[in-house]
Amino acid sequence: MAANLQVQLANQRDGMPEAGDFHVVEAPIPRPAPGQMLVRTVYLSLDPYVRKAIRGDHPGHKALVEGDVIYGRSVCRVVRSHDDSYKVGDYLVAETGWRQHAAIGPEKVVQRVDPSAGPLSAAIGALGMPGLTAWGSVEHLSLPSLGETLVVSAAAGPVGGCVGQLAKLRGARVVGIAGSPEKCDLVTKTYGFDECINYKEADWEEKLKTACPAGVDVYHDNVGGALLVDMAKHLSLYGRVVMCGRPADYHSSKFHGVGLGPFIGRRAKLYGLVVYDYEHDLERYLRLASAWMREGKLKIKEDRADRLENAPAHFLKLMHGENIGKSIVAVGPEKA
Ligand SMILES: NC(=O)c1ccc[n+]([C@@H]2O[C@H](COP(=O)([O-])OP(=O)(O)OC[C@H]3O[C@@H](n4cnc5c(N)ncnc54)[C@H](OP(=O)(O)O)[C@@H]3O)[C@@H](O)[C@H]2O)c1
Q1: Is 248 touching ligand 1 by the criterion CB < 6 Å?
Q2: Which of 8, 96, 103, 129 is close enough to 30 for a disulfide, judged by CB 3.0 to 4.6 Å?
Q3: Whole-model pTM?
Q4: Which among 191, 199, 112 is positioned nearest to 157, based on CA atoms?
Q5: Each residue of 49-78: pLDDT tens digit?
Q6: Residue 221 near ligand 1, beta carbon < 6 Å
Q7: Do 52 and 115 belong together in one domain?
Q8: Are 157 and 323 in contact (CB under 8 A)?
Q9: Which of 159, 185, 285 to mutate to test the pocket of ligand 1 (most atoms within 8 A of CB)?
């Protein structure tokens, strides 16, 4: 086993990525420069936006060229530090890229991790960016309340799962939309949603109508495309829609535009969500979410692979929508 593996781009492609677009190489463990620290990756986060970042279509990310290390955030542990604010042994979420070790400055640190707040890996899931995205949606934008119905797509994933659970904590009725019976089981039996509809079944809209007899007051959209348009006709008058993601469009510069006319008929209010807008509220969210997790009111599910070498295959699984839960790679031990 090499001391410091990393995953590099082998081919910049327009379209769905393939296994040959990545290669795993050995590299020396970097020396941190003055003001930097050396961190060791514990859990690498695989997220849909990484596909856009690789193409240079995500804020703050230049298009990668062959030989560049793939972008990514991880839960990592400080191994050596030339910055007094970070001590050896501290856990952080940082922009490390897909590497076992990285030399990073403080500007790459996204979040400090309190290991007593919950499972360490949750810092890239419900206790991190995906959880904060859900918080922004539910507590800052759509504010679902008792007597209202919220529907969320990609409901088995970390954002969708948190959106539904946070909405239930506010008293709303919550219905998930997901792509397989196994995902729907997770959504109702583990996350505790009232119902979950498999949108790959021909009669899914009939089932949705039955599940939401008074219409949909809030729709949190994680997928865009045809499903977003189809949902317009199920909205109640003056319904709210939070537009959060459109994974079908992440692979290519060709935009699959959607007709927004039906939203006019519903007098809908459409919100675009960007998680960075809620960073000021991260600490408050983490305090509450950590307590809810301890009390069993906020459940998580991970789709885990072991070892960095498996990151490309696991990423392709996410790209094909085959992940069940938060996609992560366990790269190294938590301690040691
Ligand atoms: N706006 C923001 O600031 C922000 C922040 C974080 C995340 N997001 C977005 O929120 C969404 C959910 O994120 P997440 O991390 O929780 O992801 P995720 O749910 O773990 O994974 C994406 C899921 O999307 C569904 N999907 C539908 N169409 C797809 C397609 N064409 N290709 C791939 N997957 C497809 C699949 O679930 P089904 O089989 O159930 O359809 C898939 O499992 C993503 O779109 C992400 O980019 C936005």
Answers
A1: yes
A2: 103
A3: 0.97
A4: 191
A5: 999 999 999 999 999 999 999 999 999 999
A6: no
A7: yes
A8: yes
A9: 159
